[in-house]
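WARN retry 2 of 3 for item q-0093 after timeout on previous attempt; input resubmitted unchanged.
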Amino acid sequence: MLPSQPVNDLKRIAHRAMLDHGLQPDFPPAAVAQTHSIQAAAIQAATAIDRSALRDLRGLLWASIDNDDSLDLDQLSVAEPLAAGAVKILVAIADVAATVRIGSPIDEHAQTNTTSVYTAAQIFPMLPEKLSTDLTSLAADQDRASIVMEMTIARDGTVTASAIYRALVRNRAKLAYNSVAAWLDGTAPPPMPVAAVPGMEQQIRVQDEVAQRLRRVRRARGALSLQTPEARPVFDWDSHRLSDLRLDVGNRAKDLIEDLMVTANGIVATFLEGKGLPSLRRILRTPERWNRIVELARGRGVDLPPKPDAVALNDFLEHSSKVEPERFPDLSLSIVKLLGRGEYALKRPGQSVPGHFGLAVDDYTHSTAPNRRFPDLITQRLLGAALDGGKLPYTLEELEILATHCSEQQANADKVERCVRKSAAALLLSSRVGQHFDGIVTGASDKGTWVRIVEPVAEGRVIRGFEGLDVGDRVRVELVHTDVERGFIDFKCSR
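OK item q-0093 returned
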């Protein structure tokens, strides 16, 4: 039986980690006061001021697919088959900008953190839950204002037409990744919300087929086939204790949403460029440690080109996933570490910025999660200016500063999530000092050498025997020390 920890202790650790990394764990009094003053009727009235500007699409079979426990629903999707095998896909994004005004106390808090932070102990939402999980969420059976990205996908998976406009939508089915994936894979019956809505089963199957078309095209261009499962907490709520950390693996329903959202984000980027407007791009630069990626491939009998080549790398990844499926998540993690971090960059009209190496796209922004990410809210405001012919909400200098700030705060949020995950893992391992584990090296630099083990999912520092280790090496380690408060897990290499 694994040891456990009261949830409140981990919440305290999470709260401290937020402060330590420059994030606000609590909403300031002014934001709380503003939240109390917001009424659903006022939002409905605001969105109804000019219904002629909103297409009424409430009659379509919209559905959301997200995590089982998600209430901050940012996007809906629906498909309409066309002639010659083409399909029109509509992606509706919650119109958060209509409620969260620039410079308001809620906006200032969102701009400070720039993202919701999801820890093993507690969620720290970017926006007050009265908004993100209710009034600005595309909740089931509720009329909501949205911004719609419309795209026509040909039989070969290419986007042949697109448009962006405002619309009124209604979520007909709140669906969850795992149950939808099991149904699509043929291992379970349709989820109840799918079965309850006439036509929804065929609707989701069409979206799944179109998503696979889009994915094939991106893979041919070099989009990387990576598996990087994250650890999700498992709580015993009767005792209010953490009982385990388990890998949250990808599945077909997650792929469906990812493929539609990547395409929608690309359409937004090109739309703003076509209007002569700036945008915040999400970029992933060409990897600096390509030589180490080449070494990892060579160790598996594959020769990669001497210069970064996304298509060649993806061919290697797809081959590895088929030949060694049980080891592929470890390889994926190594490649992710070596690729480096994504970042936000200002795209000025007419100027170029790097694309996203991992997604194999040149034009890519973040626009599909405005309840959860501030860059998406910024993009939505830029879209509003483009759609309404209004003044830009930010100067180029402000956007430059915001791009840097959002990149920094995303990195800090990742550190908080990792810190709390480490504390949770340290707790679960605290009674296992002296035991041996198989692991993979996930970091190797002057700052230290790090190894990840699988059961429970945990990453720790190698304090002895790390000489000569590099990212991707498989090792045998012994647990020598844990510190729950600081999230320390120390190993020595036993080879």
